[in-house]
Inverse folding.
């Protein structure tokens, strides 16, 4: 009787194992990604002959003079002193602050090219004081 139960138990587990192996067949799904064609056209040639960098060049020169003014404090033996009004004038190009007269009369300023996000121009000007 024990051997009959033992055989039934072995047969039962063998049957469960076979059913488990057969039923666990993995279905393979083919997923094809959506392919989008860009809606723009890349030009074959570029023409840089008509590009005008004069405004950018003048603003870089303005920044250079502003930096030079700030650096004057690094060479002084006394306590460095910067005039806040000079810095503000250089930032907004008012009051002829630059040594290069072409920069003073250019109508350009650093202030209008500074990001207005988060009130950055006002924050910069407040740092000059």
């Amino acid at each position: 009787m024990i051997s009959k139960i033992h055989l039934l138990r072995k047969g039962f587990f063998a049957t469960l194992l076979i059913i488990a192996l057969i039923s666990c067949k993995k279905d393979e799904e083919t997923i094809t990604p959506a392919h989008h064609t860009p809606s723009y056209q890349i030009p074959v040639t570029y023409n840089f002959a008509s590009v005008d960098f004069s405004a950018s060049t003048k603003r870089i020169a303005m920044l250079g003079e502003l930096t030079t003014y700030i650096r004057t404090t690094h060479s002084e033996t006394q306590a460095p002193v910067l005039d806040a009004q000079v810095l503000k004038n250089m930032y907004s190009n008012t009051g002829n602050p630059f040594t290069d007269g072409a920069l003073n009369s250019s109508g350009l300023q650093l202030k209008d090219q500074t990001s207005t996000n988060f009130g950055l121009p006002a924050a910069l000007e407040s740092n000059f004081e």
